[in-house]
Write a structure and sequence with these properties.
FAD/NAD(P)-binding domain; 4-stranded parallel beta sheet; 14 helices; homodimer; 5-stranded parallel beta sheet; 2 domains; alpha/beta
Chain lengths: 433, 433
């Protein structure tokens, strides 16, 4: 009698989970891939959805569509609530239990507000598509509100034209640059406000923007941001965030729109495994101690390579390579082929963009900036996108934006009937009296 | 001393309002264009956003972007609450008052549930972008839910794979055909359900689908729908809609997803003018009786052409021509040029599509169907789209879908964290017990 196929459950269909599933395409296994969303999301370009440069469909693809031809995988849209490691079962929100012989946790990261969770309401972050178009709406509505207020009192409008980005890692830098460019592109669209007078303030607690990059590139990024009109304030901690106001270790700032790019924490995977702390520490085979059938990869894992002092960063190439490693390993196991390799990350470098013709890239020591850096950044991102259609449409959208200097997706989608967003209505009503 | 410019207020930036504003580009007037949304929406293609074929950015364009070069117009994003005709002022939600010398109301239409307003919750309609992606989410989530239920009990899953569309005018026909095609395109994506077994039922109270078309075209549309697997039930009234169930004058239908395309009513403009009833009756100059400075155009107006028995239909070409007429008239007035023309609608015909290679068109007596009709339908819609970028991207999206048979925007965007949509969670929980 033929042995039943090994059951592999993968939680999370980001770069890690999807790569693992695809590497197992020809293995004699039965894979169940669980994700709370129906789509794989290309997070590095999320800030472009938030700043109206790309549309959600450009950077997301239905998981089922990617895996439709892979017969040994079923896709389940569900939310994992826990893991019964004794009985080897994954439990979900809808009351189901998925048995596994091997389990891969690739559940990603969430935002961290360093304990001040009430800031989350005033300073949204950027992890999902819903975050992104919510942020887009917030930014575009701020200009609309400023326009109405400025008809009577231009001074009062300024806080609606002030945007604060907290955290100058790649996400914060990219957001700040993109908001500054968005504001420039609106120059002719309003009659009572001057979009070029928009203030974009980037706050960073450390000494440099892009702290994980070489100092020379950090300095260049700062200059590029300033050339776009962004006010960069390093060595500045945020001490409080409330409606209309950000208090820092320097002066307080009156602003209606605050965007959080300052901290991430791991998903709840550690709790599912009964561990303390956020990230799940994994060994050279990407397994946590004491769990020989569980692999943890991507942003949720904490892996310190041999001889290194820091864990690998939570970036897409790391997650992808981890997923491929685990997929390869489990495939060999299922086929009865010996597999003794440990995981080794092939570091291709890092890059961040600031805006049109401005980017910094560190490719294993070779530092590239300016227009060439920007082209490289674009090419690398298009390369990592999943789906030929997405690549084509992103390239066309970028070409369009480059030629016209316009953003293609400046839409506020939430119905503004019966009062629009309540904070805007209240702000304008109190103003009108 | 120079005379102050005539103030023209336009409410609504659909085809009517936007055409009027653009026709006034060279007139010595000061225009204020008020809309509750920040974008102009191409409603005829909304059903394609709802069925994941196009993305919102393809069919909407920011009003400010369209009018950015027209110096005599300011765009205000606000919600009109009333009109003070004595003092000639338009009042808005944010407490502002916009004085006018001439006023154009182009506020469009809403859905009508024939008095059964509680059906609106169970059977959403399609008027705004938020409606469209809400519907898209509902449709896609229905398949995801069916997949989970079918793992244990395939029979129970069928109601999630049953879709009812109420109303067989062009919108209903287009929706029904598109859902049937969407279901076909999912054929390989699921493991426990068979998407080709999806039921799409189109209900129509009258004797024919597309009742305003010639009988020969109605019959052809019905055959085309049936070739896609749509069950067409004419002469069938809906008597009740509740969760999971539609009761008709024939049998009740178990289905989780009902879409409303059966009735429209005018916007609240009539109430603002102190009139009874829905539509605002207008004369040959598109003005209601007793208001020489107010024009009402588009879906909200009721205009019976000389010698006709029926009012003009609420379709895009009518709104556009009405807007152009009023713009032309007001422009002449402002310049002091005599203008005595009355409004005459140049009827180019009507068309509706059913799906790939299937459409019916009646171009002033010339009846076209099949592939040629479908190409004509596509060309006409691209022609009416506003914005070169939108035209380009829609053509590319259609080309892509035609070549691959896939829908490009199959995204469920609302975060499914912490439980997803509550009805789905409840449905699955009760099922799991």
């Amino acid at each position: 009698m033929a042995e039943p196929l090994r059951k592999i459950v993968i939680v999370g269909a980001g770069f890690g989970g999807l790569s693992a599933a695809q590497k197992l395409a020809n293995a004699p296994v039965q894979i169940t891939l669980i994700d709370r969303q129906n789509h794989h999301l290309f997070q590095p370009l999320l800030y472009q959805v938030a700043t109206a440069a790309l549309t959600p469909a450009d950077i997301a693809v239905p998981i089922r569509q990617v895996l439709r031809r892979q017969k040994n995988v079923e896709v389940v849209m569900d939310d994992v609530t826990g893991i019964d490691t004794a009985n080897q079962q994954v439990q979900t929100e809808t009351g189901q239990a998925f048995p596994y012989d091997a389990l891969i946790l690739a559940t990603g990261a969430r935002h961290s507000y360093f304990g001040k969770d009430d800031w989350a309401h005033h300073a949204p972050g950027l992890k999902t598509l819903e975050d992104a178009y919510g942020l887009r709406e917030k930014i575009l509505t701020a200009f609309e509100t400023a326009e109405i207020i400025a008809r009577d009192d231009p001074k009062k409008a300024q806080s609606y034209q002030t945007f604060v980005v907290v955290g100058a890692g790649p996400t914060g830098v990219e957001m700040a640059g993109a908001i500054a460019e968005l504001a420039q592109s609106l120059a002719r669209d309003f009659r009572h406000i001057e979009p070029r007078q928009t203030r974009v303030i980037l706050l960073e607690g450390g000494a440099h923007v892009l702290p994980s990059f070489a100092e020379r590139l950090s300095a260049r990024a700062k200059r590029d941001l300033e050339s776009l009109g962004v006010e960069v304030r390093t060595g500045t901690m945020v001490t409080d965030i409330s409606p209309g106001r950000v208090v820092t270790s320097r002066d307080p700032i009156a602003c209606e729109t605050v965007l959080w790019a300052a901290g991430v924490q791991a998903s709840r995977a550690a709790q599912w495994l009964g561990l303390d702390g956020g990230h799940v520490p994994v060994d050279a085979t990407l397994r946590p101690e004491g769990h020989k059938d569980i692999y943890v990869i991507g942003d949720t894992a904490r892996h310190v390579p041999d001889g290194a002092t820091h864990p690998l960063p939570g970036i897409a190439p790391v997650a992808k390579q981890m997923g491929q490693y685990v997929g390869h390993r489990l495939s060999a196991e299922a086929k009865g082929v010996p597999f003794s390799k440990t995981f080794r990350y092939r570091d291709a470098g890092m890059m961040a963009t600031i805006g049109r013709n401005r980017a910094v890239a560190d490719l294993m020591g070779l530092k590239v900036t300016g227009f060439v850096g920007w082209l490289l950044w674009g090419a690398a991102h298009v390369y990592f996108l999943i789906g030929f259609k997405n690549r084509l449409f992103v390239i066309l959208s970028w070409l369009w934006a480059y030629i016209t200097w316009q953003r293609g997706v400046r839409l506020i989608l939430r119905d503004q009937t019966g009062g629009g967003t309540s904070s805007r209505r209240d702000a304008l009503r109190s103003f009108g009296q």
